[in-house]
UniProtKB/TrEMBL annotation:
The keyword Cell membrane does not apply. Coiled coil: none annotated. This is ATP-binding cassette domain-containing protein. PROSITE patterns: ABC_TRANSPORTER_1, ABC_TRANSPORTER_2. InterPro entries: AAA+_ATPase, ABC_transporter-like_ATP-bd, ABC_transporter-like_CS, P-loop_NTPase. The lineage of its organism: Bacteria, Bacillati, Bacillota, Clostridia, Peptostreptococcales. PANTHER family: OSMOPROTECTANT IMPORT ATP-BINDING PROTEIN OSMV. SMART domains: AAA. It comes from Peptostreptococcus equinus.
Length: 331
């Protein structure tokens, strides 16, 4: 049996809030039938009511099932969209030599750092993942999703975005306030409580930003760091993309550790290209890139995690000095 036939109406509304729109558009008053299934609700109509309201009960049931299917596809919340494992299969370096690994599996909630000199190919690896490369990019890499060759929807559909990418440079071009921008995004995601969601995103963004900003600030007036903070909070709370790619977050002027904690806690796979030793050691693994190729994959050791504690202590001192200078204090 399908879930529409099994779940009670209040359970359907809780699982798929957008179903309320279907009832309203079809003038189906479900008041008093919330604890009934949709079939039981349809069965309560008398023959006279069916004729007067020109109802086709079988069609109503089929239409509701199709409505839910299409909305799940539109919102990218189909169960099949879940990514448990992202796999990278080797390609070649800039000279055509094979990469030095057999395969790399990245699991949900894992954080992977991508390290290497400037120009080594870190951004190219992020691009291969974004485009689910199939031996058809300059690196000849192949990307698998859940150990399968990815569905074409990942590459060509604007609604089933596999990846949310936060690039080094971010500029808004829309003439909206922060509130209007977030409400627009929340509405497009069919969020039930838009006001609460917008407040939550603003709260988290201001935890990351160096200088707090107001909800009525125009997004074009945000600094680079504030823009990054807003988009990280928005991605963590609103985006359905199961994979997040971040290019050099250390240049964003935000609280890097809090940003990563926020993204990882949302059950996503996070890959971050970085030159920052703190971020590299925060990751579960780090991919080492040179001359366009992955030359090594290193699991972060216990000894390195201990080194990270020392680095974080040094970083706190540097951050405090930076804060003091920024606010006009003398050292």
């Amino acid at each position: 049996m399908k879930e529409v036939e099994i779940l009670k109406i209040n359970e359907l509304l809780e699982k798929y809030p957008f179903v309320e729109s279907y009832f309203e558009e079809n003038k189906l008053d479900i008041s008093g039938y919330e604890n009934k299934t949709f079939i039981e609700f349809l069965d309560h109509f008398t023959l006279e009511e069916v004729e007067d309201m020109a109802l086709d009960l079988n069609k109503n049931l089929i239409d509701l099932q199709e409505y839910i299917r299409q909305m799940k596809s539109f919102l990218g919340i189909e169960v099949s969209n879940s990514v448990d494992v992202l796999t990278i299969l080797p390609g070649q370096d800039k000279l055509g030599n094979p990469e030095g690994f057999e395969r790399l599996d990245i699991k949900k909630s894992e954080m992977i750092a991508i390290v290497g000199p400037t120009g080594s190919g870190k951004s190219r690896l992020l691009a291969d993942i974004e485009w689910t490369a199939q031996n058809d990019t300059p690196t000849k890499r192949t990307i698998l999703i859940n150990d399968q060759y990815p569905d074409k929807k990942w590459r060509f559909s604007s609604n089933n975005k596999l990846v949310a990418q936060l690039s080094q440079n971010m500029n808004f071009v829309m003439d909206l306030s922060v509130k209007e921008f977030l409400e627009l995004h929340a509405r497009s995601r069919m969020v039930e409580d838009i006001e609460e969601t917008v407040e939550k995103i603003l709260e988290e963004a201001n935890k990351l930003a160096g200088e707090k900003f107001r909800i009525d600030t125009q997004i074009t007036a945000l600094s680079g760091g504030q823009s990054r903070a807003l988009m990280i909070a928005d991605t963590a709370i609103l985006s359905s993309s199961p994979i997040v790619l971040i290019d050099e977050i250390e240049n964003a002027g935000i609280d890097r550790k809090k940003a990563l904690d926020l993204l990882i806690s949302s059950d996503k796979i996070v890959l971050i290209a970085t030159h920052d030793p703190n971020l590299a050691l925060l990751a579960d693994k780090r991919i080492v890139i040179n001359n366009g190729a992955i030359i090594n994959i290193i699991n972060t050791s216990v000894n390195e995690k201990n080194k990270l504690i020392e680095l974080e202590d040094m970083d706190r001192k540097i951050q405090e000095l930076r804060r003091a200078l920024r606010y006009g204090e003398s050292l």
